[in-house]
UniProtKB/TrEMBL annotation:
<feature type="domain" description="PPPDE">
    <location>
        <begin position="7"/>
        <end position="156"/>
    </location>
</feature>
<dbReference type="InterPro" id="IPR018997">
    <property type="entry name" value="PUB_domain"/>
</dbReference>
<dbReference type="InterPro" id="IPR008580">
    <property type="entry name" value="PPPDE_dom"/>
</dbReference>
<comment type="similarity">
    <text>Belongs to the DeSI family.</text>
</comment>
<dbReference type="Pfam" id="PF09409">
    <property type="entry name" value="PUB"/>
</dbReference>
<keyword id="KW-0378">Hydrolase</keyword>
<protein>
    <recommendedName>
        <fullName>PPPDE domain-containing protein</fullName>
    </recommendedName>
</protein>
<dbReference type="GO" id="GO:0008233">
    <property type="term" value="F:peptidase activity"/>
</dbReference>
<dbReference type="Pfam" id="PF05903">
    <property type="entry name" value="Peptidase_C97"/>
</dbReference>
<dbReference type="InterPro" id="IPR036339">
    <property type="entry name" value="PUB-like_dom_sf"/>
</dbReference>
<dbReference type="GO" id="GO:0006508">
    <property type="term" value="P:proteolysis"/>
</dbReference>
<dbReference type="InterPro" id="IPR042266">
    <property type="entry name" value="PPPDE_sf"/>
</dbReference>
<keyword id="KW-0645">Protease</keyword>
<dbReference type="GO" id="GO:0070646">
    <property type="term" value="P:protein modification by small protein removal"/>
</dbReference>
Length: 299
């Protein structure tokens, strides 16, 4: 086995919030969180060309050519070295663990894509490498504050309700990515139709200063809507929303940063003009004010 061809292994890290966590986490949970990580394990199999194959946990165990798993670029690539495992051995391992990684078993806090990546990386490296704790435990760390504990209760309650009613956990942020057949040759992940938010979902409205609850169901629905837009439109929407949140954090005493003029050209084009952009701002705690502007709540 000493002379067997060896393949390279890396963990690709993506920020599902596209910068919004870094800008808004302090206001929402009282703790700085730099990203909401999704990870995939990328293997460049010995003797192959191209970017490699990415393995990740979406609506089940998924595989895709590296770089095609997400609609955003990786914000970090963690090199784990080489493996002597073959592709056939990895696929056999994935078949063994796949019953534990389905849409129904997903848990946003304790059993997510990062836990899957850690198991795969540990298998490939013989325990020598894995997903760093700063990524693996980000949910536990982020929800350790008093505000975070309240958010945890909301998330867990929603998960329990959704599992009971849908026989699957719809909080999976990649639940609209179809799982792959592990008995078939590697193929690109094919998105299924996104799950629409519940018709019962409501958006809280209030006056500035009253504060507002973060509607996680509405937020997920809005993010899925934004996900339908073109890449540049998504980037513009997320970037503008993150900047607006950062302005409030940097200038907490200035009322002008708590209102957004509807006539603002950048806002109208990049947020209101993007599919799901208005819904995203509502879910984050904004409210319409007489059709002339927006006020920011909860900060």
């Amino acid at each position: 086995m000493a002379n067997s061809p060896r393949s390279t292994v890396a963990v690709h890290v993506y920020d599902l919030s596209s910068g919004m966590a870094k800008a808004m986490s302090m206001a929402l949970i009282g703790k700085q969180v730099d990203l909401i990580p999704h990870t995939g394990v990328v293997v460049q199999w010995a003797g192959t060309v191209g970017a490699g194959t990415e393995y990740f946990y979406g609506g089940g165990v998924c595989t895709t050519p590296a770089g095609q798993a997400m609609t955003m670029a990786a914000c970090e690539v963690i090199q784990l070295g080489q493996t002597s495992k073959t592709e056939a051995e990895l696929r056999s391992f994935l078949l063994q663990i796949s019953p534990r990684f389905t849409a129904a078993t997903y848990n946003l806090l304790t059993h997510n894509c990062n836990h899957f990546s850690n198991e795969v990386a540990t298998f490939l490296t013989g325990g020598a490498g894995g997903v760093p704790g700063r990524i693996l435990n980000v949910a536990e760390d982020a929800l350790s504050t008093p505000q975070g504990q309240q958010l945890r209760a909301v998330i867990e309650g929603m998960q329990n309700t959704m599992v009971a009613s849908n026989a699957a956990n719809q909080l999976n942020p990649l639940g609209h990515v179809a799982a792959q057949s592990l008995n078939a040759p590697t193929a690109a992940a094919v998105p299924a139709v996104p799950v629409a938010p519940s018709a019962a979902t409501t958006h809280a409205t209030a006056d500035p200063g009253e504060g507002g609850a973060l509607d996680l169901t509405a937020l997920r629905g809005a993010l899925l809507e934004v996900d339908k837009a073109e890449v540049e439109a998504r980037r513009g929407c997320y970037g503008t929303a993150a900047k607006l949140g950062q302005n409030i954090i940097d200038n907490p005493g200035e009322a002008k940063y708590r209102r957004i003029k509807m006539a603002n050209a950048a806002f109208a084009k990049k947020v209101a003009g993007c599919t799901g952009g208005t819904e995203l701002m509502m879910a984050l705690g904004t409210f319409a004010a007489g059709g002339t502007g927006w006020g920011w709540l909860g900060v």
